[in-house]
Structures are given as structure tokens and as C-alpha cells.
Amino acid sequence: MKTVFLESHNINNKFSGFGQFNYHLIRGLSQVKPEDLSIVLHAKNTEILKNEFGNTFEYRKYNSLSRHKPFRIKKKYDLWHCMNQNIKIEPFHNIPYLLTVHDIHFITEGSEGLQDKLKAKFREKLKRATAITYISEFAKKDTHANFEVPDVPEFVIHNGNTITDTKVPESYTPPVFPEKPFLYSIGDFSERKNFISLVEMLRLLPDYNLVLSGSNSSTYADSLRKKVAEYNLKERVLLTGKVEDTEKKFYLKHCEAFVFPSLREGFGIPPIEAMRYGKPVFISNNTSLPEIGGEHAFYWDHYDPEYMKEVFLNGMHAFHEKQTFYEQWYVDRAKSFNWVNTARDYLDVYHKILS
Question: Which residues pair with 97 in a beta bridge?
Fold first, then answer.
């Protein structure tokens, strides 16, 4: 039996983007795993995975020392799946290697020295790759535009939608509760997420509150808070911090619209999650977002507050004019991104490499 090693230790942070990818792909694989493959999960807390997946997989405990070359994992697996472009853990031996690229945001973020270091590491991953998967056509295009990609098989496999059960307990009330109709967004508070543009727009939309979820201990978050204070919007811009599934589902279910003015996305799961609730989505017309949002999302081409307000109001008018159509289209669109199908596509790639 062939063995496939999933370098999945980022599953330890289940509510990060990479953690979500790892968990939901593994969950999908558990539903369609073929009998001719032994799949090994790599994680710090293997007991949690064993309790959920039992003997569907084999397990190897993560040790941080394996990041360093002398202590790399020496077992010769038939295939090593590097599950994102930032992973520091590599196999000791030259074995078949599948690289999954989510994005190459590191070429523009952080100091110049850090960018150079991450670019060098990524080039080594590309050289090592037997095959490459990308989570969007944009991620593939962006990688080719900025790096010399080896002549190996390449595949685009979209992520699935993380929300399949949309139910929220009727009695549930979130810790942060907006008192009037609200817009919702979620993501780490960083320059790339561009949340301050939503604060600028909200000044011109007095009938709405804005709820923002995500890790908000950053320099950018501090700038956003200053802007909120400057505009006297403390009662209308509500920061929840990180949210668990039920809290996120509550905001998605009850918001008037989902707003996501991100400057750069390798994929963009949050708009799909909002679509699953039939909500109108307003997103940036750049990078992977048009690929994910489709023809009936509403798009911002730039971020002038007056322009953003007009796009929003016109979009809400169009949505309410044909609400049944839009709601059904959004739900169908969200359902088309399915983790079981994603898992099947990855298994096809595994088999192609191993054959």
C-alpha cells in the first residue's frame, strides 16, 4: 500500500486560514479515502484527530525540531504533500513532493529582508515539487508572473465551503450584538483586508452598523480604532475579535450584506460562507475574488467612500428587486464549492503522481 504524508501541522490552529484548509480537506478525505492509500496526518495533538477520524488515517506527532535540517523527518513516504507555501518542515530525502500554493502575499508584505527570505524558501519548494496544486486560477497566474515555475504537472483545485450546516440555535445571542441592521466582514486585521475603507463608507450609511470579526491585535487594528474614534463611530463599528463557528454563523445569518474589500486574496472563503446564507456579497474586483464571487456578486473597482456607498446602495436595490433569484443563486454558488469534491480532486492528483 502506498503512503501519503500530509504535512498538516497547521491544523493545530483550526480557525486560521491554513488550519481551516487542513481540517476540511482531511475531513473530506475521510469520506472518500480509497483502500489503496495509507494517509498519514502530521499534528501536535494527534489524539483529537484520532478521536474524530479513528483508523481512517495513520498519525505522526509533530515536533518543532523537525523544522531544522538535521532533524527532518527521515521516513521515505511514497508522497509528501506540503499543504501550503509557508511550511518550514521538509522531508529529509528527495521523495515525490506535492506543493499546494494558496497565495504569494509574502512578495509584498513585511520587510524587504523578510520578503527575500520567504522568496528564497518558496523557490526551493518549487524546485523540489513533483507537482503543484493551486487553490485558484489567480494563485497559479500570480505564481507564474513572479517566479520561475518548473515544468511539472499543475492543477487548480478550489477549496470547499466550510459551512454546510447553516443552523443557529434560536436562543443564541452573540457577545457583541448589533442593535440595528448591520453589515458583516471577517478576516485578520491587516492592510490587505482593507477594513478601514468600510469605516470610511459607513460614515455615509447612517442606517447601518458594521460588525468586524477576526484577530484585531495589530498595528492596522490600532489605526482602524483611531479612525472609528475620529469619526465618532464607536457605537456603530463593533469589533468581535476571533469568533467560534456559532457566533460567525449568527452574524452571517442576520447581516444585511457581507462586505469584503480585500486588496489581495488567494481564494476567499468568507464570501462563499455568506452566499450559503443567501446574502448579497460586496467584494473587490481584483485577484481571485471575481473567480470566486461569480457574475452576481457586487464589485468595487476602487475604494473612494462615495463610490463604495453608491455601489452598495445600487447593489442592495438590485438584490431586493429580485431577492428570490439572488438568494437561490448565492446558495447554489456556495454549494458548488464542496470539500468532498475537493478531496476527490486531491486524491486524483495523488494517484497521478504515484502512478
Answer: 80
